[in-house]
Automatic annotation (TrEMBL):
PROSITE patterns: RADICAL_SAM. Its cofactor is [4Fe-4S] cluster. This is Radical SAM protein. Binds 1 [4Fe-4S] cluster. The cluster is coordinated with 3 cysteines and an exchangeable S-adenosyl-L-methionine. It comes from Methylomonas lenta.
Length: 360
């Protein structure tokens, strides 16, 4: 049950009082230790009246209807429309952030769209969406708002999708993913040095989230790695990452290798060449990843889905537009009968590449 302090401020559960009078936030592995009135690195969780509160409940950076493939999810209700929203703030400090104007916002008044969880779910249903995405910034920092919205969605038969870096502590992770149906987890690199120096976080908590999702939940999830030239694109690191994924998560977890563009505090790096993405994809496939994709570039062959058994094309993609569809009603290859991992409707959706802004 959400306890409101004000209209957009709610009490939270994951914190404890320290001996020196500060309060430690226990939502994510940053463990921010806050004096009265002080905010954590995420900026939206604050020590207020000797408790940690969330200050952005019900306030969004905007709403839009996207193709599910944009999350990116290629094996979860392909071709369908997904209602997307986020808030402000983030619990990591990635120097390359591609959504920094939202995730790093310190101007809460820029969040002009107000919406209750029930209104979001109702609007998504009325707009013909199959699911709702908690995205644009990391839903870890709007934990309570995301869970309340996911509960409202479930009551209406809508799926919930988390787009997250997976940087969350064990107890809130269990509560959060109890209400999620799918996720895309941003595995930013496979190096503790990269996580510490470039994101301000650590690799191990992210790996723990992935292991939890695979072995203790029924949540469908896919992985995304933004390939940054000279930072996380070495063959050694990609070999280690993809081998770990197959050994620990299995061969059926799709991996997306996406192109970086200079942004935020990393404008000295060049755009990722397509050849680097294709190299990462090839390494993944060599190491046993059955479904590997490239993103933020145009390469129909590397964006499409193939049967891991017979090699035939199952789902053709051209950016976010589906073309070929060679799955039967049960998600099996029409050529050899092998099951394609994921959740599929009997027929593909036809939302295409549209992005439709929504005002509530």
């Amino acid at each position: 049950m959400t306890t409101f302090i004000t209209n957009d401020t709610v009490a939270t559960h994951y914190w404890h009082l320290l001996d020196d009078g500060r309060i430690q936030c226990d939502l994510c592995p940053r463990f921010c230790k806050l004096h009265e009135g002080q905010r954590g690195l995420c900026f939206v969780r604050q020590n207020l009246q000797q408790q940690i509160v969330m200050t952005s409940y019900g306030r969004s950076s905007g709403f839009a209807i996207d193709p599910i493939e944009k999350k990116p999810l290629n094996h979860f209700l392909p071709g369908t429309a997904i209602f997307s929203f986020g808030t402000a703030g983030c619990n990591l400090a990635c120097k390359f952030c591609q959504n920094w104007d939202i995730s790093k916002s310190r101007e809460m008044d820029t969040l002009m769209s107000l919406a209750s969880p029930d209104l979001i779910a109702k609007t998504a249903l009325e707009q013909g969406c199959s699911s709702v995405a908690y995205t644009y910034n990391d839903p870890v920092v709007f934990h309570e708002y995301a869970i309340d919205t996911a509960q409202a969605c479930r009551e209406l038969g809508l799926k919930s999708v988390a787009v997250s870096a997976g940087y969350v502590c064990a107890e809130p992770r269990v509560e959060f993913y109890r209400w999620m149906d799918a996720a895309n987890i941003d595995l930013k690199a496979f190096s503790e040095d990269f996580y510490y120096k470039i994101t301000g976080g650590h690799l191990q908590p992210v790996l723990e989230t992935l292991l939890y999702l695979k072995h203790e939940t029924q949540v469908w999830f896919e992985l995304t790695t933004l390939i940054i030239p000279g930072e996380n694109d070495s063959e050694a690191e990609l070999e280690a990452m993809t081998q770990w994924v197959v050994e620990n998560l299995g061969p059926d977890v799709p991996m997306h290798f996406t192109a970086f563009h200079p942004d935020w505090k990393m404008i000295d790096k060049p755009h990722t060449p397509t050849s680097s993405l294709l190299n990462a994809r090839n390494i993944a496939i060599k190491n046993g990843v059955r479904y590997a994709y490239v993103g933020n570039v145009h390469d129909k062959l590397a964006e499409s889905t193939y049967c891991h058994q017979c090699g035939e094309l199952l789902i053709g993609r051209d950016w976010y537009v589906l073309s070929d569809w060679n799955l039967d009603a049960g998600g099996h290859c029409q050529f050899c009968g092998t099951k394609c991992a994921g959740l599929f409707n009997p027929k593909p959706g036809d939302w295409g590449a549209k992005r439709q802004a929504v005002r509530l």
